[in-house]
């Protein structure tokens, strides 16, 4: 998977300079660290925990902590259940005055009158060099970033819980001539870019060179496929007909989404609609095979008719 491979590549990459270790650790600790009250080694007290789902990231965080804090951190491993199950590695730092001091220097936490909290914004004092700006972006991506498979869509995002931090991430990206947008999400603020050029540039900035190569070759293939499709569509009436039917289905699905939302569809129809939106070029047979359990071409066709019929009815009411 493109996302997993990209994260793996970045997690295995160790910065050359101490300055970059500081800024990358700062980004990771700010993005997925938190202050916890808990039992620690039989004593109750506070601990600063950095959580990650990837073993490679956990190893990187441990190496960073060893070099910056000069001690070997404790690591716990849990298996998270619930809606997004998966492994979790928790790197715990004992929360003493020395740790607090370093976390403050790293711009991860700040001390106010009512106590210590995660700091808002980006620690610009660590980011005077270009290498450190790159490292910071890499840290935020490793901690809470996502990149979509380029065969589906060009999309890269960085999540954060603070609007000031989101604005700071945009400024970091802007120093590499990319201007991401910010969108509000339930779980915070999403800094994102769309478009092959911007995604490739940010991957390059972070140092994900294999990912850039993969993305570029997908772009070439997509371009070729687009050209072939255009030729075939002009020449073959059948293909044109199928493409037109696909387009009509997508128009109908978008209309339903706009007027009443896809969530108001029955689960079967909603699943069909989302599958079609994500795979505009697939045949009905292929769409049917994507479902589990798979359904026949005529069953797919039946669902599509119901979707188009509903869109027509909604259209009549709206107009
Ligand atoms: Zn640096």
Helicity level, as a percent range? 55-70%
- Strand-pairing-aware structural class: alpha+beta
Distance between the termini: 44 Å
CATH architecture of the largest domain: Roll
CATH topology of the largest domain: Endonuclease I-creI
Number of helices: 12
Q: What count of domains describes the coordinates?
A: 2
DSSP strand count: 10
Question: Biggest sheet, in brief?
Answer: 4 strands, antiparallel
* Beta-strand content: 15-25%
Write out the distinct hetero groups bound to the structure. Answer: zinc ion
Mean model confidence by pLDDT = 89
CATH superfamily of the largest domain: Homing endonucleases
Q: What Rg do the Cα atoms give?
A: 24 Å
CATH hierarchy, class of the largest domain: Alpha Beta
Q: N-to-C SSE series?
A: HHEEHEEHEEHEEHEEHHHHHH
Would you identify the regions where 5 or more consecutive residues have pLDDT less than 50? none
Key structural traits:
319 residues, alpha+beta, Endonuclease I-creI, four-stranded antiparallel beta sheet, binds zinc ion
General description of the model:
The chain has 319 residues and is of the alpha+beta class. It folds into two domains: 2-206, Roll (Endonuclease I-creI), CATH 3.10.28.10; 236-318, no CATH class. 56% of the residues lie in helices and 20% in strands. The chain has twelve helices and ten strands. It has helices at residues 2-12, 18-32, 55-69, 97-105, 130-144, 163-174, 196-206, 209-235, 237-259, 267-278, 284-290, 297-318, and strands at 33-40, 43-52, 74-80, 86-94, 109-112, 115-118, 145-147, 155-160, 181-185, 188-194. The strands form three sheets. A four-stranded antiparallel β-sheet has the order 1-2-4-3. Strand 3 and strand 4 form a beta hairpin. It binds zinc ion. The site of zinc ion has 7 residues, from helix 2 and helix 5.
